[in-house]
Amino acid sequence: MLEITRIREDKDAVIQGLKTRMIDASEDVNKLVALDEAWRVKRTALESNASEMNKISKEIGQLFKEGKQEEANKAKALTTSLKEAEKELKTEVEALELEIQTLLYKIPNVPQGIVPVGKSEEDNETVEEIGSSPVFSFEPLPHWDLAAKYDLIDFEMGVKITGAGFPIYKGKGAKLQRALINFFLDEAEKAGYDEVIPPHVVNEASGIATGQLPDKEGQMYYMPVDDLYLIPTAEVPLTNIYRDVLLPNPDFSIKITGYTPCFRREAGSYGKDVRGLNRLHQFDKVEIVRIENPENSEKALGEMVDHIKGLLEKLGLHYRVLRLCGGDLGFTSAITYDFEVYSAAQERWLEVSSVSLFETFQSNRLKLRFKNETKKSELCHTLNGSALALPRIVAALLENHQTESGINMPEALIPYTRFKTID
Q1: What is the C-alpha to C-alpha distance for residues 24 and 170, in angstroms, rounded to an integer?
Q2: What are 57-89's pLDDT values in tens digits?
Q3: HSE of 55, CA atoms in CB hemisphere, 13 A
Q4: How far apart are CA 166 and CA 156, in angstroms?
Q5: What backbone torsions phi and psi does residue 373 show, to the nearest 5 degrees?
Q6: Is the pLDDT of residue 245 over 60?
Q7: Which helix (H) or strand (E) holds 130?
Q8: Which pairing describes strands 319-323 and 125-130: parallel, antiparallel, or unpaired?
Q9: Strand order in 246-247's β-sheet?
Q10: Where are the beta strands (DSSP E) in 52-92?
Q11: Bridge partners of 351?
Q12: What is d(CA 328, CA 341) in angstroms, rounded to the nearest whole number?
C-alpha cells in the first residue's frame, strides 16, 4: 500500500499519478489526509496524557513520603481521570488507524511517469517485437487439436475428475511440462536466483502483504475450515519469506525463484480466451522474485526483462514486449512489462509473462526494510516476474513448431525432454 507520509507530503502528485489508471482518487486521498491529521492530533494527546500520568505518579510517591496525604489523594484522583481519558483516546486512535488502513487498502499503486495513460489492453504500448511467425504449407492446427492428435492432454478427463480448467497431461505432454519447469529453473539458477520450494497454500496475512487480499475480484480459492488460500502465484509465498524482516545494511540484492502450481478462479472468463490451455484454473509456473535497494530496482527490472527475452528466444518463439497502460496495470504495480507470444494457429497474441516493479507498495505491507548508510530503516523495493507460465508457452510451442508429420522441440529443450519430436 502507499505510504501515508507520501500521501501527506505529496497529495497532489498522488492524485495526478493515479489519473494514469483512469482513476479519480481525490476524494479518498483527501479523506486520508484528514484522517491522518486527526490521528496525529489524537496520538499527540495520548502521548501528552501518558507523560502527565507518569509525572503525577512520581509526585504521588513524593507527597506520601513527605506526609502530604491529602494532596497525594487529590493527585491519585487526577490519575484516575487521566486513565479514563487514556482509555478513550486509545479507542479513538485505534479506530482512526483502522479507518486509515482500510482506506489505504482501496488505493492502488501510483504508476511511474513512463506508464502510458489508458483504459484497457488496447492502450498498451509495444516496446519491441522479436522474431517472426512460421509460414506453413498446410493448415496449422490449434493446440487443442494437436493435443488430441498426439494424445498429450486430456481436457475431458480433467472435467470428469474436477471440472473445466483442470486438464490432465499425458505421455510426452507430461514430459514436456516437466522439461519446461526444469529448463526454466536451471536458467534462473544460471542468472543467480536461489531456488525455493514454497507452500502452495498461504494464510490471510501473506495474501494481504503482497496485495492479493482483500480479494476484490474473487479470484482466489479459499478454504474456510482452515482459513487458508490456494496460491494464485508463487510470488505470494516467495515474497512473504521476507515479511517483517530488517536487512542489516544497504548492500543487498535478493534473487529467488520457485516452481509451483497456481490456482485461479478466473471468474468472468468466457469465449475463445478460455479454449484449451488459453485460460486455466490450475497451471504450472516458475516465478522469479527480487528484493532490492531502491537505487538498484530499475536496473533489476531491466535484468528481469532481459531474462524473459532470453527464455523466449531459446524456445524459438515470436514474441513482443508491452508496457502496460495505467488502466491495465495490476493493483500493486508501479510499472509492468507483459510478454506475449504469437500463436500461429490461433492467429493471436498470448500473454505468457508479466514482469513488475512494485517500488515500496508491497514492502510497506510486508514491513520489509533495510538499514541505509546512516543506519536508518528504509523500505525495500520488490519485483517479480513469470519465468515462465507454462500453459500458453506449451500452446505456442505445439502450434508454432508443428509440421505435417509431428511437432519439433527447440534445441534448448531437447536435453530436458529427451526427445526431439512429438509424433
Answers
A1: 50
A2: 777 767 666 677 777 767 677 878 888 889 999
A3: 8
A4: 9
A5: -60, -25
A6: yes
A7: strand 125-130
A8: antiparallel
A9: 246-247, 369-371, 377-379
A10: none
A11: 340
A12: 18
